[in-house]
Design goal:
The chain has helices spanning 2-22, 24-31, 34-60, 68-83, 89-111, 117-135, 162-185, 187-197, 199-204, 209-235, 245-258, 264-281, 287-301, 305-327, and strands at residues 146-147, 153-154, 157-158, 237-238. The chain has 328 residues and is mainly alpha-helical. The protein has one domain: ABC transporter involved in vitamin B12 uptake, BtuC. It is globular and about 75 Å long.
């Protein structure tokens, strides 16, 4: 009975969520509410970034407080190339992946030689460095940001079309979840989790944990860069604000709220956080006063996040079933 409940809850909920996200453009068209396409497009894009961060925090134990750096790099690639009239999406994607990989290797080699608070502060410092670099780029808007006249074009697929952009982002999210599950359940993922538990012991067993961590860091950086690229197409605007510590904090909040080390959890956290945020904004300008305590309560209810609540519910259902069977 418990096995059946476990499969039905922990599999059914993510499937229903992804199905609902897939049907958003249809509902937006039927309801003639394009706003929903923008809102849930933002949710999907930030879910991609949160899933990439979960690989670091949830599986590698690396709390990066500068992950927004790569989100901003992806956005600026689209903005700067579009500024020069380059709208080829394949070029945007290639430059984004290459740039995030290079920056990821450089920053990773430095920051991964530390751990704990030192790692957090170094990743934050790198993000702030690039933030001030973007502010200093007066030719590209500086602190005021840069408007994007033309989005990324992948042949006949133009991300200027909100429906095309949404489904491309949704496809990327599904691909990230599939690839992420393969990675974390492979030997690589096992070593990464072992390093999180006891890095010294893993090194004593002969594993080059620094290389594993660096590889995870670079993969996460590249995926987050793609999410930034998609966000630039969604907003048609890029700003240094994308690289601030508050954006990194939002991504961490999504991961923790949804559930660390679950991949699907960050998607749930992104959907919950951005939906509640939008609802509260409709009622009051001081929505943060309400939003903060709500996150605290959600985390206190289950330290494993919203996705972890499913496990708690499964246990309660299993106990209740056993109690009923014992009485019978």
């Amino acid at each position: 009975m418990m096995m059946h409940t476990k499969i039905s809850l922990r599999t059914l909920v993510p499937v229903l969520l992804l199905t609902a996200l897939a049907l958003v453009p249809v509902y937006a068209h039927l309801a003639q509410q394009p706003f929903y396409l923008t809102l849930f497009g933002r949710i999907v894009i930030f879910a991609i970034a949160a899933v990439s961060l979960d690989l670091l925090i949830g599986y590698g134990g690396m709390v990066s407080f500068g992950h927004a750096l790569f989100f901003g790099l992806g956005a600026y690639v689209v903005g700067i190339l579009a500024y020069y009239g380059v709208d080829n999406g394949f070029v945007h994607l290639a430059v984004t992946l290459a740039l995030c990989a290079v920056v990821g290797v450089i920053t990773g080699l430095i920051s991964l030689r530390t751990s704990g608070i030192a790692f957090i502060m170094i990743t934050l410092a790198f993000a702030q460095m690039f933030y001030f670099l973007a502010v200093g780029l007066k030719q590209y808007g500086g602190d005021d940001g840069l408007s994007i006249a033309s989005g990324s074009h992948f042949g006949s697929l133009a991300l200027d079309d909100p429906n095309v952009l949404y489904y491309v982002a949704f496809a990327v999210l599904c691909a990230c979840l599939w690839a992420g599950s393969r990675i974390v359940n492979a030997r690589f993922g096992m070593v990464l989790r072992g390093s999180r538990q006891n890095d010294r012991r893993m090194r004593a067993l002969g594993f080059a944990t620094l290389q594993y961590k660096l590889f995870a860091y670079v993969i996460s950086a590249m995926v987050c860069g793609v999410s930034g690229m998609l966000n630039a197409n969604l907003t048609h605007f890029v700003s240094p604000a994308y690289m601030t510590w508050t954006t990194s904090g939002d991504l961490i909040a999504m991961v923790v709220l949804g559930g660390l080390g679950s991949l699907v959890g960050p998607v749930i956290g992104s959907a919950a956080m951005l939906t509640v945020e939008e609802l509260l904004k409709g009622y009051t300008d001081h929505w943060m006063i309400i939003f903060g305590p709500l996150i605290v309560v959600a985390v206190l209810l289950s330290r494993r996040g919203l996705y972890g609540l499913l496990t708690d519910l499964e246990v309660r259902i299993a106990r209740h079933a056993r109690a009923v069977e014992s009485k019978v």
